Amino acid sequence: MKTKKKRVEEELIKEALEEEHRIRKAFKDKDWAEIKGANSWMIFKVMSEFVEGLEKLAKIGPCVTIFGSARVKPSNPYYKMADEIAFQLVQQGYGVITGGGPGIMEAGNRGANRAKGKSVGLNIYLPHEQKGNIYIDPDKLISFDYFFVRKVMFVKYSQGFIVMPGGFGTMDELTEALTLIQTKKIGRFPIVLVGKKFWGGLIDWWKKVLVHDGMIHEEDLDLFDLVDTPEDAVAVIDEFYAKYLLSPNF
């Protein structure tokens, strides 16, 4: 029987070889048949993902998306906070959308399920086979191969973003939303960062470097709110739409 160390070493070697193959493949000359075949397949796959997403999500009604790390365990305070935020959002009349995986995503779906509200999961196929968590409504689980299609769905069908602590993926989703609003490619909707201690350093850097060096305007920092409690997170969403005399049944 192979030792754990041996299995880990073999897995690392396998990953390194696969990475080298992908790099070499990118430089390989392709004939017209290969190019046409590969591109045609990709176009139809992208189209099918858009069609499925648009058809299913058009019917879900007003929802708020909760972003955050897949690595957070149920014992983590941020997991419990995401669960409670989702629960309170449903009580206020919203459904909840997440990336469909474990961690913060699971917590968001769990809270929505606990409150008997709409629990949507936009899952992404990953090398380590991320699967939809058990708290997603069976008819509201959609799986994607392409991150960019998935991000379109998040933006198109969310009335707001709750951004919990997370890694590169969470940062990507946050900055995508900020950029689209900043450039007026989409309408303004509330973006709520939860966890002052977690996000504080990044926001300070935005102020001291991005604003100072003229990379963004100071008023761009008004595109998001920073809170520390579930109650404050949900209040930002409600107060934002109250200004427009809108309620969750719009």
UniProtKB/TrEMBL annotation:
It comes from the Bacteria. One of its GO terms (molecular function) is AMP nucleosidase activity. It is an enzyme of class 3 (hydrolase). It catalyses: AMP + H2O = D-ribose 5-phosphate + adenine. Its EC number is 3.2.2.n1. GO terms for biological process: cytokinin biosynthetic process. Keywords: Cytokinin biosynthesis, Hydrolase. Pfam families: Lysine_decarbox (PF03641). Transmembrane segments: none annotated. One of its GO terms (cellular component) is cytosol. PANTHER family: CYTOKININ RIBOSIDE 5'-MONOPHOSPHATE PHOSPHORIBOHYDROLASE, LYSINE DECARBOXYLASE-LIKE PROTEIN. Belongs to the LOG family. This is Cytokinin riboside 5'-monophosphate phosphoribohydrolase.
